[in-house]
């Protein structure tokens, strides 16, 4: 029996189990389960996550999902896209909708989630992961290897439930995760997403 099979055999039915899945492999039930968890994790934005709508801005390319039985209890989305940093076009893995179900926050599930996000970024062969995070959650990302971009303004298209879009500029909260590169490889200058975030 392999280690993975042995682990699966000893796992209780409700112990969270992670999978990384391509967006095109998700079914309607998957989208509904993800949307239900995201609406609980982000109550101020619950109007975005209705029925099978399991995304807010751009749909991810990969999803990292933890389930307890049939219930989604943690989630992150990752998508490759080009951004402009200063004068440089750069491929990044845009990370978003990172969430752990409120009743399981503080259990270590978030750390497991970010380790699998790292693996997804490696799989997608992007030099950097990139995301926007509120100040209150930045320590969580910093603890798990993400690095804050100081003095950088990020520009992106905001999203609304009805699809309208306006340009937003934010002077803080931009983090990167170096992959097979080092931090100095990140170009100087402001960050232009040229579209929406995941």
Automatic annotation (TrEMBL):
Domain of life: Bacteria
PROSITE patterns, A to Z: GNAT (PS51186)
Descriptive protein name: Nodulation protein A
Domain N-acetyltransferase: 16-162
């Amino acid at each position: 029996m392999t280690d993975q099979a042995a682990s699966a055999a000893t796992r209780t039915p409700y112990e969270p189990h992670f999978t990384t899945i391509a967006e095109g492999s998700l079914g309607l039930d998957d989208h509904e389960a993800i949307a239900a968890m995201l609406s609980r994790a982000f109550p101020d934005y619950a109007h975005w996550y209705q029925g099978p709508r399991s995304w807010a801005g751009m749909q991810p390319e990969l999803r990292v999902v933890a389930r307890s039985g049939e219930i989604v209890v943690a989630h992150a989305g990752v998508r490759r896209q080009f951004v402009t940093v200063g004068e440089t076009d750069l491929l990044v893995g845009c990370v978003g909708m990172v969430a752990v179900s409120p009743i399981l926050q503080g259990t270590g599930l978030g750390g497991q989630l970010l380790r699998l996000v790292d693996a997804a970024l490696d799989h997608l062969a992007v030099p950097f992961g990139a995301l926007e995070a509120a100040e209150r959650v930045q320590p969580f990302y910093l603890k798990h290897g993400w690095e804050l971009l100081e003095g950088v303004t990020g520009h992106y298209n905001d999203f609304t439930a009805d699809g309208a879009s306006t340009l937003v500029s934010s002077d803080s909260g931009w983090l990167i995760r170096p992959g097979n590169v080092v931090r100095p490889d990140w170009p100087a200058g402001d960050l232009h997403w040229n579209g929406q975030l995941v």
